[in-house]
Amino acid sequence: MILVTGGAGFIGSHVVEQLLADGHEVRVVDRLHPGAHDGIPDGLDPRAEWVWADVADPVVAARAVRGVDAVCHQAAMVGLGVDFGDAPSYARDNDLATATLLAALHDQAFAGRLVVASSMVVYGEGAYTCERHGLVRPLPRTRAALDAGSWEPSCPSCGRDLTPVAVTESVPPDPRNVYAATKLHQEHLCFAYGREHEASVVALRYHNVYGPRMPSDTPYAGVASIFRSALEAGRAPQVFEDGGQLRDFVHVSDVARANVLALTAEIPRSRSYNVASGERHSVLEMAHAIAAAYPDALAPAIVPRYRLGDVRHVFGAVDAARSDLGFEPRVPFTDGMRAFSTAPLRRTSAT
């Protein structure tokens, strides 16, 4: 039996589908967070055991882990959110819920495979090279620089321009917003559990996931969904900064397959893995790719705004996941964005 927390959500539901298709027994615990759901989703597979409850509740967690052989922990509050006032909600849904789940696993002496959904946001800025100093980590962009429209980070030693490169799992984490801090703490809690119980732990650092069933028109959704919702409402997608931010947009079907591999593959040790497409694209390029499916739509509009917790460039190397898990991204950017332009989105209680 595999427990999938958050298994009715955007990514979790795709993980559950792939596990069931492979013949696994699946139990799902999901509290149907209003930022991601507007009630119980349609079309749930009856082969899974569905529990509508909050894994942050110790009683729920104790029942959820009973008799499971592996755990896929997808439940989390995602996205950059509205402002710092969201901090208690992120800490509760991400960190407290994870700690409660792990305490329940402790009581069961669980020593199986534990996969936790992490995020590329734990890196902060991605990796950069300076022609003089080699691989460097730029300092956080200041409000003054952003107000002046100076978007690109510079070398912290000499101030030169930097070249962004793919970030690997060996780069030290540097979370730069509340969401990022809680995702890194989830990793730390899970790895601490694994060391104490000799359990095998895999943290999957998702890059920018998109695809069917993304929550629509909410600050807790990904940028692809926000752009898509704007187009459907007849508005021009608003692209912050100058649109040149580089990201890796990975299709949810690839992310779900990475989870199945992480649950079942023989791995050399507990560790984190990037889950990405291996391609980098700008945010403006992504906005145009979605808008192309709407012939009468307003063109994406660049607005010189920013969110202080955002980073400029981050995209991931997938060599480790390819080598250890056998992961190979399959959905090309152009094909995936074309399909996403008309794929069903999920309404939330806020929409």
The residue fraction in helices comes out at 25-40%
Task: Quote the beta fraction.
Answer: 15-25%
Globular, elongated, flat, extended or rod-shaped: what is the shape? globular
The N- to C-terminal Cα distance equals 35 Å
* Low-confidence spans: none
Q: How would you write the strand order of the largest sheet?
A: 3-2-1-4-5-9-14
Order of helices and strands: EHEEHEHEEEHEHEEHEEEHEEHEHH
Tally of DSSP helical segments = 10
Mean pLDDT: 92
Secondary-structure-based class equals alpha/beta
Oligomer: single chain
Q: How is the main sheet built? A: 7 strands, parallel
Total strand count, please? Answer: 16
Radius of gyration of CA atoms, rounded to a whole number: 20 Å
Please characterize this protein's 3D structure:
With 351 residues, the chain is of the alpha/beta class. The chain is 32% helix and 17% strand. It contains ten helices and 16 strands. The protein has a seven-stranded parallel beta sheet, with helices on both faces. It has a three-stranded antiparallel beta sheet with strand order 7-6-8, with no helix packed on it. α6 packs parallel to α8. The mean pLDDT is 92.
